[in-house]
Amino acid sequence: MTTSLPFTREGELSPSPDPYKLTDTELYEVFVEQAPHSTVRRRLHTALRLHLDILCDIAGSGPVLIGGGFISHKPTPPTDVDLVYLCRDSEHLESVLTHPDALQLLTLQKGYVLHPAMFGFDRLQPVGGKVDAFLATPGRYAYWRGLWSTIKGTGQNGIPKQDRGYVEVMV
After folding, report:
1. Residue range of the domain that includes 85
2. Which pTM does this prediction carry?
3. Going by fewer Cβ within 10 Å, which terminus of the chain is more open, N or C?
4. Which stretch of DSSP H or E encloses residue 49?
5. pLDDT digits (tens, 9 = 90+) for 52-95
6. Which residue blocks in 60-151 are alpha helix, DSSP H?
């Protein structure tokens, strides 16, 4: 099977009003096999696959939006996979968050521990930092779609907004 998606000259996934819906097999084909830096990408996809398997065990099947450098063909290698799992509703989100294994699957930001030893972190990502993962309720879907469909750092501080595509997979 050969899956083909449109890319810009810069290697970004071309903008689309809706996410490009792919199976995991198609995701692997386009963003590991057909993309530059396949060795780095293979490791990231392995981390993603493990993460999504555990997430599915905890949250059940559902849509996952994937954005960022992993879903590009840019000349620089990606460092992680950015994703958000779309919960069905607030109750679903609460049930996922209260699962004893949930926190190890989510990106934690600005955390501090005061006892027994005082320390802090700005950002802690699952799977050795290879996955940047969040949860969203339906009320926040538009925020995440907007985030994944814009090149980071554009649209602010006088930098023109640059749109790009993003991907949806089902777990």
Report:
1. 20-98+106-138+164-170
2. 0.89
3. N
4. helix 38-59
5. 999 999 999 999 999 999 999 999 999 999 999 999 999 999 99
6. 90-97, 126-129, 141-148
